[in-house]
Design goal:
GTP binding, 12 helices, NOG1_N, binds guanosine-5'-diphosphate, P-loop_NTPase, GTP-binding protein, nucleotide-binding, alpha/beta, Rossmann fold, single chain, Four Helix Bundle (Hemerythrin (Met), subunit A)
């Protein structure tokens, strides 16, 4: 998403050495003596400006327009590095590009207006100004380099797939279930505030793509303990989720009482209020107290008893998943345009 970011010195070295090469090439050509000095220096300065401008442009072109990204990625970038800081850094590169274009014109004219004897000193002056412009964007280049590192291994989301987010306390069986539902090894990508990263599993059912997302370290602990940015990391998932699988461990071998698990569910229901939830009681292969569990069932028709480890109840989950409708998140303005058309 972000290309390799050079330092100001690397940019200047490249610009200046290419400028020198271009001038050297011109040296072998027949040019009237009184013009030769300034033609050479003009070529040197103009080439340096162009090479540096090209470098900046290649960075600017490679970074996608943040506003055009899916809201999930906009949120992801915002939580990870800050959208405003990103825009500021790109704006600075754009600014430097503009100034270099200006210097290119200004010095090209200056060489033309002055005799060859002055060409070397004009060239030095131009190089000084070019260096000063490029050095001014040092912190912006640094920032983009940091952003590149931070945004590497972003999750690859299939926005056309029906997306199911798995939640529940640690050790209730989320990743075991994800593997049962999606088969192959899940994709593991970076996700802010998750130590193990986000896990994404894909499957197809009746020609429908489905992806399962597990976020260890995020949707597995009390939401009330979270700060604003951590909350944003959860809210980003709201742009994706078409349904939530909330997993209880009624055996409590995960180390958490059902009451605490239930409290987490209530918080998640509040955050994802628009999104349907399927409630799963896992580890049913272990002997469990039915009466005790029943206290925590609010929604019997959407509650299933499973054993992720044994694959027990997976087909019932799939039946529920088949009924899930992908939430249409097309922006309103697109809808209106289409309506006008018809
Ligand atoms: P996560 O932290 O929620 O992703 O939980 P894991 O999938 O890593 O499972 C935590 C532990 O519970 C592991 O030791 C699993 O083998 C075990 N486990 C998961 N599902 C079941 C199940 O259905 N029955 C039993 N007995 N153990 C399970």
């Amino acid at each position: 998403m972000i290309p390799t970011i050079p330092t100001p010195d690397e940019i200047l070295d490249k610009g200046f050495s290419r400028g020198k090469k271009a001038a050297d090439l011109l040296r072998t050509q027949k040019i009237p003596k009184h013009l030769k000095g300034k033609k050479l220096e003009e070529r040197r300065v103009v080439t340096a400006c162009q090479v540096i401008k090209d470098k900046l442009k290649s960075i600017l072109d490679a970074v996608p327009e943040i506003e055009e990204l899916h809201p999930f990625y906009q949120d992801y970038i915002d939580i990870t590095v800050g959208v405003d800081s990103m825009k500021q850094a790109l704006g600075a590169l754009n600014w430097a590009y503009g100034i270099l274009a200006q210097l290119e014109r200004e010095y090209s004219n200056k060489f033309k207006r002055n005799p060859s004897e002055r060409a070397s000193s004009i060239q030095r002056e131009a190089y000084g100004r070019i260096a000063s412009v490029v050095n001014k964007i040092e912190k912006d280049l640094d920032f983009l380099d940091f952003a590149k590192a931070s945004l590497r291994n972003m999750p690859t989301i299939d926005f056309d797939a029906t997306t199911i987010v798995i939640a529940g306390f640690p050790n209730v069986g989320k990743s075991t279930l994800l593997r049962q539902l999606s088969g192959a090894d899940p994709q593991v990508a970076n996700y802010p505030f998750t130590t193990k990263g986000i896990q994404i599993g894909h499957t197809e059912r009746h020609w429908k793509s489905i992806q399962f997302i597990d976020t260890p370290g995020l949707l597995d602990r009390p939401v009330l303990d979270m700060n604003d940015i951590e909350m944003n990391a959860i809210v980003a998932l709201e742009h994706l989720a078409d349904a939530i699988l909330f997993i209880f461990d009624g055996s409590e071998t995960c180390g958490f009482h059902l009451e605490n698990q239930y409290n987490l569910l209530k918080q998640i229901e509040k955050i994802f209020s628009e999104i349907p939830i399927i409630y799963l009681f896992n580890k049913m292969d272990i002997e469990q107290d039915e009466e005790y569990i029943n206290q925590f069932i609010d929604n019997p028709e959407n509650t299933l008893f499973i054993s992720a480890m044994d694959g027990e109840g997976i087909d019932k989950i799939n039946e529920k998943i088949d009924k899930i409708k992908k939430i249409d998140r097309t922006p309103d303005d697109v809808d209106e345009e289409e309506l006008d058309y018809y």
